[in-house]
């Protein structure tokens, strides 16, 4: 646990605190950078940011094994359109000029290694990224990444899952500096039929014993109703595939975002 | 046959071979990997598990496989004696069955009734389906659409054995994508599913466990070569590497010997159309360090970390990474990795077939080609062991197609031996895919 909070961590915690004060869970929409095209992405991100407390931007990757088919297809489309690592950080940098909400980047570790961890963090810092979400990096795998992120003012978010043992929950929770990301189900990202709270309350109860950061829940949250369920127990609600499906289906992203954001209000 | 699983100094407690290896996977899987590691460590010293594995390796697989002096190949090369470790004699036709039976036994022991596997050429899929049938386990095999087309016969075998073959159309529709899908299935069904991983790749403890289960190959060579040549170690061992499981199986029992006692260990990488062409699967020669499928290793990936699709004449070597222990061997000089092209492999296949009456898998043909070059270099006093990892039945249709193309050039010889073995694969292919 870092002794002093990074700039990114402070901004993230403040965003959660604001939502909390307004009787809401923080709304954290996800969008793949460069989707549906590099040109159209800024408008999509603007629409999401009109409702978001925090924006999660996915760095498109060729082999996203923690993601389901929806996000994988979005990544393939973004990569085909030329959006890769550096371009993603440029797109985030442009959003940073127009918006004040925290922006976190979700990336698999390979692009970080390929660019070089130090260079990656430098580019992320320059772009105004507040934090990283690392779906294939358990915190005990590579301490260097988290340390370099902290050096560059970035917060890091690791994930817990319903299969996590109490020891793992503790280890992961203590390593997070931005927020803790609780995966609602065993599985990959993507909207599901009949997604319900299931194991989430028990998992959160365990996590809260150790986490000194807010806890967001994601995977399978797809609409106002599921967001509302999660918002009753979590500090933040992450919604991803539903927005990509909306774009693919020609639906109005801003309207969907507004609807789900309204669902994040606590009873 | 008694069986003791070996103990090696690598990996460390965190699953690292030097800086390679590790567990770069979604957190969901970490407890399952811990559980697997514990179960494996317990099984490794449990006489009941070892006896059953030994019995199956002997009576079901047909071990020990032969160590055969390829005299006509040796004469042709005009140098060192070339021995073939005949993993092609194994039931199901390749070394893959050694590992699959062991992992399936472990799955049953852990109470997992559902097993999943990924496959490229189909050998690991067939071996997994076979082990599952033998032990009464439900089996699902992920296979890229491209490989399903290339390996129709193996797809049919898997189905006949009762496995469900799931076609993977994401990404490049090949082995790496089949592996992604298998991992996704495992993340989703981790509580009741055992992932039978087919090579020395993936998150710890897989590379170590698969190595241990394949080490029977090198351990047998020690004994057999002692009988044949009066020494346990040859001058050189040659084996093909994709992920690297057959190579590690024959290398590892020698790799940790003091340098003076250690044979030269040479892995042949699939260089496709040449390492400079960009169309290859040579991860050591043409890759750089990266993370894929849970492990830090040499990897074909571009400057921004996107995986570069590999290419090889052989579906079994068509993988963009190489196991972390091989990376460690390469970095520390324990083993050498040399590129062998598609054309050279095809030459190796024809050579062995004509001279010895053995049709090798295209994978193994890479090793054969290099062994002939090396035999000349080592001279008549030398002894080389080549791991003949699998037989070529699965490849004859593809080889026939390639040689038909080549036959258009006047210097090409007509491939009677190959085409008669192929026996009209096209009708069978239609039947399977219908």
TrEMBL record, chain A:
Signal peptide interval: none
InterPro entries noted in UniProt: Aldolase_TIM, RibuloseP-bd_barrel, Trp_synthase_alpha_AS, Trp_synthase_suA
Enzyme Commission numbers on file: 4.2.1.20
Any one Pfam family match given in the protein's UniProt record, by short name: Trp_syntA
CDD domains assigned to the protein according to its UniProt record, in alphabetical order: Tryptophan_synthase_alpha
Keyword vocabulary terms for this entry: Amino-acid biosynthesis, Aromatic amino acid biosynthesis, Lyase, Tryptophan biosynthesis
Annotated catalysed reactions: (1S,2R)-1-C-(indol-3-yl)glycerol 3-phosphate + L-serine = D-glyceraldehyde 3-phosphate + L-tryptophan + H2O
Pathway terms, separated by semicolons: Amino-acid biosynthesis; L-tryptophan biosynthesis; L-tryptophan from chorismate: step 5/5
Active site as annotated: 56 (proton acceptor), 67 (proton acceptor)
NCBIfam families: trpA (TIGR00262)
Subunit structure and binding partners: Tetramer of two alpha and two beta chains.
Family under the similarity heading: Belongs to the TrpA family.
Function (record text): The alpha subunit is responsible for the aldol cleavage of indoleglycerol phosphate to indole and glyceraldehyde 3-phosphate.
Protein's UniProt name: Tryptophan synthase alpha chain
Organism field: Deinococcus carri
GN (gene name): trpA
From TrEMBL, chain B:
Boundaries of every Tryptophan synthase beta chain-like PALP domain copy: 64-390
Gene3D superfamilies reported in the protein's UniProt record: 3.40.50.1100
Positions carrying N6-(pyridoxal phosphate)lysine: 96
Recorded metabolic or biological pathway in which this protein acts: Amino-acid biosynthesis; L-tryptophan biosynthesis; L-tryptophan from chorismate: step 5/5
Domain of life from the UniProt record: Bacteria
Catalyzed chemical reaction(s): (1S,2R)-1-C-(indol-3-yl)glycerol 3-phosphate + L-serine = D-glyceraldehyde 3-phosphate + L-tryptophan + H2O
Enzyme nomenclature, EC number: 4.2.1.20
InterPro entries associated with the record: Trp_synth_b_CS (IPR006653), Trp_synth_beta (IPR006654), Trp_synth_beta/beta-like (IPR023026), TrpB-like_PALP (IPR001926), TrpB-like_PALP_sf (IPR036052)
Cofactor(s) named in the record: pyridoxal 5'-phosphate
Polar residues compositional bias, start-end: 410-426
Entry-linked HAMAP family: Trp_synth_beta (MF_00133)
Function noted in UniProt: The beta subunit is responsible for the synthesis of L-tryptophan from indole and L-serine.
Family under the similarity heading: Belongs to the TrpB family.
The protein, known as: Tryptophan synthase beta chain
UniProt source species: Deinococcus carri
């Amino acid at each position: 646990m870092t002794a002093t909070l990074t700039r990114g961590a402070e901004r993230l915690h403040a965003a959660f605190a604001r939502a909390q004060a307004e009787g809401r869970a923080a709304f954290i929409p996800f969008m793949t950078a460069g989707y549906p095209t590099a040109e159209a992405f800024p408008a999509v991100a603007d629409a999401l940011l009109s409702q978001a407390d925090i924006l999660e931007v996915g760095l498109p990757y060729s082999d996203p094994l923690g993601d389901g088919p929806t996000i994988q297809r979005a990544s393939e489309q973004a990569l085909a359109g030329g959006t890769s690592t550096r371009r993603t950080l440029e797109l985030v940098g442009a959003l940073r000029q127009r918006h004040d909400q925290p922006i976190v980047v979700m990336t698999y570790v390979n692009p970080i290694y390929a660019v070089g961890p130090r260079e990656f963090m430098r580019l992320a810092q320059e772009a105004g990224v507040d934090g990283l979400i690392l779906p294939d990096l358990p915190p005990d795998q590579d301490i260097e990444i988290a340390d370099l992120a902290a050096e560059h003012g970035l917060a890091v978010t690791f994930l817990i899952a319903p299969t996590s043992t109490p020891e793992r929950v503790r280890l992961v929770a203590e390593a997070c500096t931005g927020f803790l990301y609780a995966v609602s189900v065993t599985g990959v990202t993507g909207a599901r039929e009949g997604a319900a709270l299931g194991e989430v309350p028990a998992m959160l109860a365990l996590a809260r014993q150790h986490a000194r950061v807010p806890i967001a829940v994601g995977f399978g949250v797809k609409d106002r109703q599921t967001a509302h369920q999660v918002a009753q127990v979590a500090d933040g609600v992450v919604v991803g595939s539903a927005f990509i499906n909306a774009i693919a289906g020609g639906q109005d992203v801003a309207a969907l975002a507004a609807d789900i954001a309204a669902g994040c209000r606590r009873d | 046959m008694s069986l003791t699983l070996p103990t090696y100094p690598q990996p460390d407690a965190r699953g690292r071979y030097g800086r390679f290896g590790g567990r770069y996977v979604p957190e969901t899987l970490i407890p399952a990997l811990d559980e697997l590691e514990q179960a494996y460590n317990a099984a490794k010293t449990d006489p009941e598990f070892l006896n059953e594995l030994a019995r199956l390796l002997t009576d079901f697989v047909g071990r020990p496989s032969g160590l055969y002096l390829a005299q006509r190949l040796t004469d042709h090369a005009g140098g060192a004696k070339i021995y073939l470790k005949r993993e092609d004699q194994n039931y199901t036709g390749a070394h893959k069955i050694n590992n699959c039976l062991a992992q399936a036994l472990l799955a049953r022991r852990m109470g997992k009734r559902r097993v999943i596997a990924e496959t490229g050429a189909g050998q690991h899929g067939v071996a997994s389906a076979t082990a599952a049938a033998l032990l009464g386990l439900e089996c699902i095999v992920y296979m890229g659409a491209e490989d399903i087309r290339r390996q129709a016969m193996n797809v049919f075998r898997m189905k006949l054995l009762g496995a469900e073959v799931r076609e993977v159309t994401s990404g490049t529709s090949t082995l790496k994508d089949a592996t992604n899908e298998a991992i996704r299935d495992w993340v989703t069904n981790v509580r009741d599913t055992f992932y039978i991983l087919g090579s020395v790749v993936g998150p710890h403890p897989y590379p170590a466990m698969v190595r241990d289960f394949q080490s029977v190959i090198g351990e047998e060579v020690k004994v057999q070569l002692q009988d044949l040549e009066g020494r346990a170690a040859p001058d050189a061992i040659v084996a093909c590497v994709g992920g690297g499981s057959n190579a590690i199986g024959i290398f590892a029992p020698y790799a940790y010997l003091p340098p003076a006692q250690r044979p030269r260990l040479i892995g042949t990488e699939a260089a496709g159309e040449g390492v400079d062409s960009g169309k290859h699967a040579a991860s050591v020669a043409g890759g750089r360090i990266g993370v894929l499928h849970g492990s830090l290793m040499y990897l074909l990936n571009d400057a921004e970390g996107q995986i570069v699709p590999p290419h090889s004449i052989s579906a079994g070597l068509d993988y963009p990474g190489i196991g972390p222990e091989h990376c460690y061997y390469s970095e520390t000089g324990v083993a050498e990795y040399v590129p062998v092209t598609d054309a050279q492999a095809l030459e190796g296949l024809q050579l062995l077939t004509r001279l010895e009456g053995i049709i090798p898998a295209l994978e193994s043909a890479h090793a054969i080609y290099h062994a002939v070059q090396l035999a000349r270099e080592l001279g008549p006093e030398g002894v080389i062991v080549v791991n003949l990892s699998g037989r070529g039945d699965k490849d004859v249709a593809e080889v026939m197609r390639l040689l038909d193309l080549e036959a258009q050039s006047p210097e090409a010889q007509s491939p009677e031996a190959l085409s008669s073995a192929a026996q009209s694969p096209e009708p069978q292919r239609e039947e399977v895919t219908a």
